[in-house]
Write a structure and sequence with these properties.
Low-confidence stretches: none
Strand content: 15-25%
CATH class of the largest domain: Alpha Beta
CATH architecture of the largest domain: 3-Layer(bba) Sandwich
CATH superfamily of the largest domain: FAD/NAD(P)-binding domain
Oligomer: single chain
Largest sheet: 7 strands, mixed
Number of domains: 3
């Protein structure tokens, strides 16, 4: 789809956004000499690569055919979290009665909610703007970048010469091969944020992060939401008990689930859009006003001319890279969603840092050394890092598991947020942390402490000695340290302590 579709409606805020991230009066610079680095794609990975390299003194060109800022700014993290924040406010008004405050049904002005999102997105956009990056000393080009040799890229009628290049073109919503879907019409994350009217009935296909976040938000806004998922529960990659806590919360918000269902086709019935699913051997018809497809990503590979320069790629997995993010052409690297299975803004950021080291300074930094957490921003949130217990079992890794329910954490009780837990898995017989899952209102904020411990090899037992303010929900992490330390108090150790204390009385 054209990037202009992402700038609807054409109001003041979207005009401001465009003036920053793809100004219509922009004139591409004239290339002068060879660049240390040419970066194709101005999403998170490309922006971090370009800014970091230029800051170190490199001569850098940055090429973007759509909107600078990529998915994150324009159709991903920024707009979605603005909607989630508004939806949480609506839920707080609705649920105020639980706190002794007279509650009422929230009066949601959806058009105002979306205008707020566009205003905030526009206010953030200068950070990713063509003007800012040009002021950093980077040559910013708008247009399709195409490799013509292992040292040249063409943009329009200009040829850019480079020593190294980085592909950071990201990914887009996939076109699912569901009969009738395209003809009937549907929303993706790339078109959802252009809505100005709240769909009375919204059908969401896919119970992954995007599907769950938006299903819950739109239900809180007042839509009648039906979520279709092929697995037996949502968030199928997460631990089942974690996913079910969120699923139950979404049901309380009014989301209806159609689980273990396969989408067969999509039809139009008058003004209705109808999704036909197969479940338990029976066909079911689900009618709605809009359909949101929340699954499937396709790497942006078209137009790059990869075959001409010997860069191997796959339509689903994207550009093939080694552990140092080098492609099958030694002059060309890749970073971000176009090559990584971790399709998150924060992972793109740190992959870009690896690329800077390895392209400019003959570094040997490895992507496999990164410890990458992630979070789904439902209410409650689900955050995870490291290994899952089922993966450990498949690999023959033995674990000790420590779980602290939020029902045993004072702050969670006082907040009325006891549906959740903090769980850490350690290598059996030690306090080495191998993974963690948190289900909590602010799980994404809480997981950072555990990621830091894993990165710097701080054992779970040592976390017990870190004083946390009381009362906070993060105390749950310290309580896990206490749990581990109690495992060291074996009957033998306890009897020795008793003997010593009797002797010293």
């Amino acid at each position: 789809m054209s990037y202009l579709e992402q700038l609807k409606p054409t109001d003041h805020y979207n005009q401001t956004l465009q003036s920053n991230v793809h100004p219509i009066d922009w004139t591409n610079p004239v290339p002068d000499g060879r660049y240390n680095l040419v970066v194709i794609g101005a999403g998170t990975a490309g922006l971090v690569t370009a800014a970091g390299a230029a800051g170190l003194g490199a001569k850098v060109a940055l090429i973007e055919r759509g909107l600078m800022g990529g998915d994150c700014l324009n159709v991903g993290c920024v707009p979605s979290k603005a909607l989630i924040s508004a939806a949480r406010q609506a839920a707080s008004i609705r649920d105020a009665g639980h706190y002794g405050i007279q509650s009422t049904s929230p009066n949601v002005d959806f058009a105002e909610v979306m205008q707020r999102m566009r205003r905030l997105r526009a206010s953030i956009s200068p950070h990713d703007s063509a003007k800012r990056f040009s002021e950093l000393g980077i040559d910013v080009f708008f247009g399709q970048g195409t490799f013509t040799s292992s040292n040249t890229v063409v943009v329009g009628d200009q040829t850019l010469h480079f020593k190294k290049a980085v592909i950071a073109t990201g990914a887009r919503a996939a076109e699912l091969p569901i009969p009738g879907l395209k003809d009937t019409g549907y929303l993706t994350n790339e078109t959802l944020f252009s809505l100005t009217e709240l769909p009375k009935r919204l059908i969401v296909i896919g119970g992954g992060p995007i599907g769950c976040e938006m299903a819950q938000s739109f239900a809180r806004f007042g839509s009648q939401v039906t979520l279709i998922e092929q697995a037996s529960h949502i968030m199928s990659r997460e631990e089942e008990d974690a996913a079910l806590i969120v699923q139950n919360a979404m049901q309380k918000d009014g989301v209806e689930f159609v689980l273990e269902a396969k989408v067969i086709r999509v039809e139009k019935d008058g003004s209705d859009r109808v999704v036909v699913v197969s479940r338990a051997g029976q066909e079911e018809r689900i009618s709605g006003d809009q359909i949101l497809v929340g699954i499937g990503r396709t790497p942006n590979l078209d137009g790059l001319g990869l075959e001409a320069v010997g860069v191997a790629s796959h339509p689903q997995q994207g550009v093939e890279v080694d552990d140092r993010l080098r492609t099958t052409n030694s002059n060309i690297y890749a970073a971000g969603d176009v090559c990584s299975k971790y399709k998150f803004t924060h992972s793109a950021d740190f992959l870009a840092r690896i690329v800077i080291q390895n392209t400019l300074f003959m570094g040997r930094a490895k992507a496999s050394k990164l410890i990458i957490p992630w979070c789904t921003y439902t209410s409650p949130e689900v955050a995870h890092v490291g290994i899952y217990p089922h993966d450990a079992a498949d690999k023959g890794i033995e674990l000790n598991t420590f779980t602290q329910p939020l029902s045993g954490v004072d702050r969670a009780i006082l907040d009325g947020e006891t549906d959740g837990f903090v769980r850490v898995v350690c290598k059996k017989g030690s306090d080495q942390i191998l993974g963690a899952t948190i289900v909590a209102a602010h799980a994404g904020d809480m997981i950072g402490e555990i990621v830091m411990a894993m990165k710097h090899r701080i054992g779970l037992g040592k976390i017990a000695s870190v004083i946390h303010p009381y009362p906070t929900q993060a105390e749950a992490v310290r309580k896990l340290g206490d749990q581990f330390n109690r495992t060291k108090l074996t009957p033998t150790v306890k009897s020795l302590f008793n003997a010593w204390l009797r002797w010293t009385r």
